[in-house]
Every structure is written in structure tokens, then in C-alpha cells.
Specification:
Belongs to the SIMIBI class G3E GTPase family. ZNG1 subfamily. This is GTP-binding protein. InterPro entries: CobW-likC_sf (IPR036627), CobW-like_C (IPR011629), CobW/HypB/UreG_nucleotide-bd (IPR003495), P-loop_NTPase (IPR027417), Zinc-reg_GTPase_activator (IPR051316). With 313 residues, the chain is α/β, with parallel strands linked by helices. The protein has two domains: 197 residues, Rossmann fold (3-Layer(aba) Sandwich), CATH 3.40.50; 92 residues, 2-Layer Sandwich (Hypothetical Protein Yjia, Chain: A,domain 2). The protein is built from nine helices and 13 strands. The termini are far apart. Bound molecules: guanosine-5'-triphosphate. Guanosine-5'-triphosphate binds next to helix 1, strand 9 and strand 10.
């Protein structure tokens, strides 16, 4: 796939909340001054990480509302690849949605090559594995297995949050799915850029296959808009009520006495980070239980907050 002016292309995968954006931000920092592009694929249409990643030195394209590996968004993804190919970049990082199944990634890249004359040197798929939640997630969804099976480098994230025994168990579980990929460890996005020099494609384990992503398997995603303020305690109580119904929740919220915060719910952990002011408080919910979550969100909100909010598809 290499041509004279080819852009080195990496695909980042890893289940919802594994730490893809956190790692990408650190990597972009380490590569400051280079010509870099990012294609970001969000399940929700808010493009919340897009706001975080906005930066003049980085070319960024968002492909939202589904998985770039699904036939429903494949064309948009190929178009984004073609657009980026015109930018004469050194590196292009594709952050796929946490529910993305990259089994067909090479087929898509070939389509981009043929359809748009895009010249990329595919350098591999990097799969982030959440040390806290992976052992539970792997039995939950085929996507989690597929992401690992089709990667060329696995990075275990959140190693600061688990015991050495759990870390060992995670490594064993990775090896059951992918016996060959190198395994690195990371805390808050730290990762030596050495992998950029390595020929990761040597560690190809599985042959390309059909993705499991389709319009039918797409999980229900909902958005909340809220124009008031709540306390951290109220929002925590609300999230605790619905956390078992969700794969993931994230957004920005205006907290009374504290100001604006980025809110991340992954598994049972809630992270809060001060952030810049927004027009509205917003949350994205990715449902584990389909549309039934709507009723749960409304009743939990009524109990814990009781102010008017809007929920939309
Ligand atoms: N303690 C700790 N927290 C981490 C680490 N990596 C990521 N996080 C936190 O985990 C949460 C999710 O991280 P993100 O980088 O948004 O994860 P993501 O994979 O991009 O999430 P999606 O886009 O929703 O799939 C955030 O609150 C991060 O701060 C880590 O190594 N240690």
C-alpha cells in the first residue's frame, strides 16, 4: 500500500471508555510539530471528543452516528480517508468507536485506495484494553473479542487502578484471544512512541472477515440537554441509578459551586475533570438494554434532580 508520499495510518480500537481519546491526546502531544490527521468515529452525534481534540495544528474529521466499519458509514469513512489523503500528512490516526468491529479494516482501506486514490501506508491496529473492565466485558460482546483478535498491538490501560494479580489475569485473557500481538501497558495515556518505528504488521494474527457492525446491531444512543445546574451529588446519584443499564455515559455538565466539568462513566467509575464553559450541559448515553433505558433515565432524573431536561435520539 506504500507509495512515495504515503501517510502512515494507524487505527485505534478498544471498547467504550478504554482510554482511546486519553492515549491519542498524549500521542499527539508527543508528535507536536509533525503533520498529523485524526479521523474520529463517535457513536453519538455530539462529537464530544471532537471538542476535546480541536486544535489548529491537527487536521480533524469526525464521522459520527455509528461505526465506520459498518456498511452504513463505510462510504463516509472512505470519503474522510480521501479528504485526509489530500492533506499530505505524515501520520493519520483513526480513533474508531468503542463499539467498532475492525475485522474488515483492510478491505475498507483498499476501497479508499481504489475509489479515491488515497495513498496510505497501513501501519496497524492498536487495541486498548481496559484493565479495570475487560474481564467482565469480554463475555458481553463479540466486538471486544474481535477488536483484540484483529489488532497488531494491545495496550493495557488504567494499570494504575488494578492489582498486579488482576493485571496478570488480563494479560492471560488477552493471550487466549490473540497469542501474537505485543502487549504494552499504559497509565493515563502514556505510551512510548517507539511503536511508530516497529513493523507491527508482522504481528497479524487473524485474517480479515466480515464485521459484526450493522444497522441492526447498533445500540441505542440517547442525548440529554440541560440548561440548569445540579450538584455533583445529584448527578452522581442519577448516574448510579442507571449505570447498570449503560455501556457508557459521557458529556459536559455545569455543576453548582464547581463550574463546568467533563463527566465520564465507565463501568461503575465516574471521573470528573474541570473543562471550559459550554452552551448547555449535555450527556450521551449508550444503552445496554435498548430503548427501555429511556424510561429509566426519566425516572432516575426525576428522583435525583427533578428539573426539566430534554432527552433526544
Ligand atoms: N485512572 C485512569 N483513568 C484513565 C486511564 N485512561 C483513561 N482513563 C479515564 O477513563 C475515562 C475514559 O477515557 P477516554 O479516553 O474518554 O476513553 P475512550 O476509549 O476514548 O472512550 P469512548 O470514546 O467513549 O469509547 C476518562 O475518564 C479517562 O480519564 C488510565 O490509564 N488511568
Amino acid at each position: 500500500m506504500q507509495t512515495e508520499h504515503s501517510t502512515k495510518l494507524y487505527v485505534l480500537t478498544g471498547f467504550l471508555g478504554a482510554g482511546k481519546t486519553t492515549l491519542l491526546l498524549r500521542l499527539l502531544d508527543a508528535l507536536q510539530g509533525r503533520r498529523i490527521g485524526v479521523i474520529q468515529n463517535e457513536f453519538g452525534k455530539l462529537g464530544i471528543d471532537g471538542t476535546i481534540l480541536r486544535n489548529d495544528n491537527i487536521q480533524m474529521v469526525e464521522v459520527n452516528r455509528g461505526s465506520i466499519f459498518c456498511s452504513c458509514l463505510k462510504l463516509q469513512f472512505v470519503q474522510a480517508l480521501a479528504e485526509m489523503a489530500a492533506q499530505n500528512l505524515e501520520y493519520l490516526f483513526v480513533e474508531s468507536s468503542g463499539l467498532g468491529d475492525p475485522s474488515n479494516v483492510e478491505e475498507i482501506l483498499q476501497a479508499a485506495q481504489v475509489a479515491a486514490g488515497a495513498s496510505y501506508e497501513f501501519r496497524g491496529v492498536i487495541c486498548l484494553v481496559d484493565a479495570v473492565n475487560f474481564l467482565e466485558q469480554r463475555g458481553d460482546l463479540e466486538t471486544v473479542n474481535r477488536q483484540l483478535k484483529h489488532c497488531h498491538l494491545a495496550v493495557i490501560t488504567k494499570t494504575d487502578l488494578v492489582s498486579p494479580a488482576q493485571l496478570e489475569e488480563v494479560v492471560r485473557a488477552i493471550r487466549e484471544i490473540n497469542p501474537v500481538c505485543p502487549i504494552e501497558q499504559s497509565q493515563m495515556g502514556s505510551l512510548s512512541p517507539q511503536f511508530l518505528q516497529d513493523d507491527l504488521l508482522l504481528y497479524q494474527w487473524a485474517e480479515g472477515e466480515e464485521t459484526t457492525n450493522s444497522a441492526e446491531t447498533k445500540p441505542k444512543t440517547l442525548f440529554m440537554d440541560f440548561s440548569g445546574t445540579v450538584t455533583r451529588e445529584q448527578l452522581t446519584a442519577f448516574l448510579r441509578e442507571i449505570q447498570s443499564d449503560l455501556y457508557r455515559c459521557k458529556g459536559f455538565f455545569h455543576l453548582a459551586d464547581e463550574g463546568w466539568n467533563q463527566v465520564d462513566l465507565v463501568g461503575s467509575r465516574i471521573d470528573w475533570k474541570p473543562c471550559e464553559e459550554k452552551e448547555l450541559s449535555q450527556l450521551v448515553f449508550i444503552s445496554r438494554i435498548g430503548p427501555a433505558v429511556i424510561k429509566h433515565i426519566f425516572s432516575a432524573w426525576e428522583t435525583c434532580v427533578g428539573q426539566e431536561m430534554k432527552l433526544r435520539n
